[in-house]
Write a structure and sequence with these properties.
By secondary structure, the chain is an alpha/beta fold. The protein has helices at residues 6-12, 18-29, 33-43, 47-59, 64-84, 90-112, 134-146, 159-169, 185-196, 214-220, 229-239, and strands at 121-126, 149-152, 173-177, 204-208, 224-225. The protein has a five-stranded parallel sheet with strand order 2-1-3-4-5, sandwiched between helices. Strand 4 (204-208), helix 10 and strand 5 form a beta-alpha-beta unit. The structure holds cobalamin.
């Protein structure tokens, strides 16, 4: 389907790398007019429109996952490129993040709804020094939807906070998120802190976040790596032998 949204077509002109342009164009060509409107409103940071259109899409029986992928995440991909290329700056990104949250507020109850008995206890946090939480929150939504009990430690989580939570909640699985190359090493440092505290063997550790790779996860000694929120659920099940 062609991209019909004029605002989005204009946004594409900001993408200078040809491979990125091709990737995003392909992604948007799979979406319809309503999802394109959601993406564009998110890029503009128009939280009221994202709120309204997300509700409208749900009323029109769109799947929550479709709205998330085709509307919200597609828009956020363009925000990320514009931010990296200094076309927009932190305040604009925060406004788009607020719009993302406005949409996610409608999707969360659906993605987290589950009649399944608890599969296990998971502790999730964004590592020390890192304030990005959108991806982590998506993972939490999906984990809860799959039947896990999740304790969210929020952002900027120090190793000792993870350790305290493991002990308090008697959790057997930890999920760490990092979005910055400068905070990624804090995942490894947190694992080292588990070793020093003598609890490394008591928990499985999964890691993720845009810059994290399987190789990096292996190097730091994590038990699992997931590239997105769907993967996160699969890895959690695998690590707890639920598959
Ligand atoms: C939104 C955003 C912000 C917002 C964060 C708001 C919030 N509440 O999260 C704000 C404005 C605060 C921000 C600040 C900064 N940011 Co920022 N930000 C972004 C942006 C645009 C989007 C991130 C996002 O939410 N993506 C959408 C979600 C859905 O994707 P995700 O996080 O990758 O998560 C998915 C997967 O990775 C995975 N996943 C995530 N966690 C986990 C965990 C587990 C266990 C598993 C299995 C899977 C998993 O599943 C998720 C769902 O599918 C990215 C660019 C980008 N496209 O990634 C830059 C980006 C991450 N930021 C960047 C930078 C540089 C910064 C700042 C340093 C800027 C500055 N100069 O101040 C600060 C750092 C603040 C700090 N100390 O953390 C750079 C990082 C570059 C680098 N190499 O490290 C990026 C890549 C932008 C860029 N292209 O330059 N940022």
């Amino acid at each position: 389907m062609p991209i019909t949204n004029k605002g989005l077509l204009e946004e594409l002109t900001h993408i200078s790398k040809q491979d990125e342009l091709q990737h995003i164009t392909k992604m948007l060509e799979k979406t319809d007019a309503l999802m394109q409107q959601v993406s564009y409103a998110l890029i503009c940071g128009d939280n009221e429109t994202v709120d309204r259109l997300t509700k409208q899409a749900l009323d029109e029986n769109y799947e929550a996952n479709t709205i998330l992928d085709d509307g919200l995440i597609a828009g956020m991909a363009i925000v990320g490129i514009k931010f990296r290329d200094n076309i927009i700056f932190v305040p604009e990104v925060l406004i788009s993040a607020r719009a993302m949250k406005a949409g996610m507020a409608h999707l969360e109850p659906i993605l987290s709804a589950s009649d399944i008995p608890p599969l296990g206890i998971v502790i999730m946090g964004t590592v020390k020094g890192d304030l990005h939480d959108i991806g982590k929150n998506l993972c939490i939504m999906m984990l809860r939807g799959a039947g896990f009990v999740v304790h969210d430690l929020g952002v900027d989580t120090k190793p000792e906070e993870f350790i305290e939570a493991i002990e308090e909640q008697e959790a057997s699985l930890i999920g760490m998120s990092a979005l910055l190359t400068t905070t990624m090493p804090n995942m490894g440092r947190t694992i080292e802190a588990f070793e020093e505290a003598g609890i490394r063997d008591a928990v499985k550790v999964m890691v993720g976040g845009a810059p994290v790779t399987q190789d990096f996860a292996d190097e730091m000694g994590a038990d699992g790596y997931g590239k997105d929120a769907i993967d996160c659920v699969d890895i959690a099940k695998e690590l707890l032998n639920l598959k």
